[in-house]
């Protein structure tokens, strides 16, 4: 069944609505909460050069990004709108980037519409577009890597100078986002497969390793030694004590990767649990199939990131569960859920029931988000 309206030609409308929601929330100036206050204390008390080192109160924040915020905010007396300005801009640009990605990855108009509306219906996406934390920038950085990877061949063919420039620009993202660690090596592997690009690949990985060493020496080594920070995230790692504990933590991680994004209410998370099997179908079924075929698409990239989260969760270096620290995985979750509905295209009743049910769910989540935004104002 073909939808007569071409939603892909009207994608400026969801973008304008997303901008409105984020800016509306932004100008509400909700009070800084605990973690934001602790980050602000570090920004105010520490001289700029001392931010390249351990942070107080068990805080984690990419140092170059933090310094950029400090330089910008101190000139305007650390006003709350200034402190949250870069997170806001990051999320707005991230939405634009993910729109471009969904436009190429969703072949059906209605599926594309559901994808972009998922951002609008996600309370977490809206909330973290207005918080003094790096999570919105993570969504943007991962989106940039994905957009580059799925367009790499076309870009190489059309404009090699731009291709080289963008390739060598990507390593700098390591300075601004921890999420880039999940992505940078994928670009290297994809480049190195082509003999013509091996020199570029080696220069690219050299820059990546250089920036990684910088970040590790002046940032990550302190986070790994911070007992308060590690203890806080300990329950979010995968449990390896015994099989039961592992399966329980793994199952909880999968559940949160699906349900955590949509709303603050428990009832929404319970309803969203209905989508867990559909998420799993895309992740494991379509994902393994894409890897076997060496396809570079949103399915294969998301599957690889999931495996990385699994590995880092096992070795207790990065939380596995889908909460704010894995906000960058939310666009993959939306895509996996919607993509799995295509299995039922030949059974029209089931296919349209799933799509309409999901649409109603994210619309209800959007209404809930609007009420919360109005409440803050």
Structure, explained:
The structure is a single chain. The chain is an all-alpha fold. It contains 19 helices and no strands. α6 (109-120) packs parallel to α19 (348-376). It is globular and about 60 Å long.
Please state the overall shape, judged from the principal axes of the Cα atoms. globular
Q: Major beta sheet, specifics?
A: none
The rounded distance between the terminal residues' Cα atoms is 43 Å
Helix percentage: 55-70%
**Helical segment count:** 19
Rg over CA atoms, rounded to whole Å, is 21 Å
Q: Beta fraction of the residues?
A: under 5%
How many β-strands, per DSSP? Answer: 0
Secondary-structure element pattern, one letter each: HHHHHHHHHHHHHHHHHHH
Mean pLDDT: 92
**Based on the structure, what is the oligomeric state of the protein chains?**
single chain
- Residue runs with pLDDT of under 50 for 5 or more positions: none
Based on secondary structure, the structural category is: mainly alpha
Any chance you could write out the topology, listing elements then pairs?
Layout (H helix, E strand, L loop, with lengths): L11 H15 L7 H12 L17 H12 L5 H4 L1 H21 L3 H12 L2 H6 L6 H16 L1 H7 L1 H10 L14 H9 L5 H28 L1 H7 L9 H17 L6 H7 L3 H17 L5 H17 L15 H11 L7 H29 L1
Helix pairs in contact: 1-5, 1-6, 5-6, 5-8, 6-18, 6-19, 9-10, 11-12, 16-17, 16-18
């Amino acid at each position: 069944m073909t939808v007569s309206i071409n939603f892909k030609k009207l994608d400026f409308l969801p973008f304008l609505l997303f901008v409105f929601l984020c800016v509306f929330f932004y100008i509400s100036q909700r009070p800084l909460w605990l973690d934001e206050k602790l980050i602000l204390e570090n920004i105010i008390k520490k001289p700029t050069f001392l931010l390249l080192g351990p942070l107080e109160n068990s805080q984690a924040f990419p140092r170059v990004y933090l310094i950029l915020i400090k330089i910008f905010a101190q000139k305007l007396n650390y006003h709350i709108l200034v402190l949250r300005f870069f997170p806001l801009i990051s999320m707005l640009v991230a939405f634009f980037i993910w729109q471009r990605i969904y436009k190429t990855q969703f072949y059906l108009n209605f599926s594309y519409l559901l994808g972009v509306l998922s951002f609008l219906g996600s309370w977490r996406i809206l909330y973290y577009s207005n918080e003094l934390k790096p999570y919105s920038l993570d969504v943007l950085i991962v989106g940039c890597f994905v957009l580059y990877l799925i367009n790499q061949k076309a870009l190489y063919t059309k404009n090699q100078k731009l291709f080289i420039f963008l390739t060598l620009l990507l390593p700098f993202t390591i300075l601004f986002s921890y999420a880039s660690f999940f992505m940078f090596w994928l670009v290297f592997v994809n480049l190195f497969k082509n003999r013509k690009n091996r020199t570029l690949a080696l220069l690219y990985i050299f820059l990546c390793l250089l920036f990684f060493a910088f970040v590790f020496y002046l940032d990550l080594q302190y986070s790994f030694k911070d007992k308060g920070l590690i203890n806080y995230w300990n329950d979010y790692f995968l449990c390896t004590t015994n099989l039961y504990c592992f399966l329980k933590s793994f199952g909880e991680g999968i559940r949160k990767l699906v349900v955590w994004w949509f709303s603050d209410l428990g009832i929404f998370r319970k309803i969203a649990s209905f989508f867990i099997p559909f998420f799993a179908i895309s992740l494991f079924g379509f994902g393994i199939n894409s890897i076997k075929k060496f396809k570079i698409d949103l399915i294969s990239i998301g599957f690889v990131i999931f495996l990385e989260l699994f590995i880092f969760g096992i070795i207790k270096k990065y939380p596995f569960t889908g909460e704010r620290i894995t906000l960058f995985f939310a666009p993959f979750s939306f895509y996996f859920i919607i993509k799995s509905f295509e299995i039922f295209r030949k059974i029209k009743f089931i296919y349209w029931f799933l799509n309409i049910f999901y649409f109603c769910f994210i619309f209800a989540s959007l209404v809930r988000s609007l009420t919360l935004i109005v409440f803050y104002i």
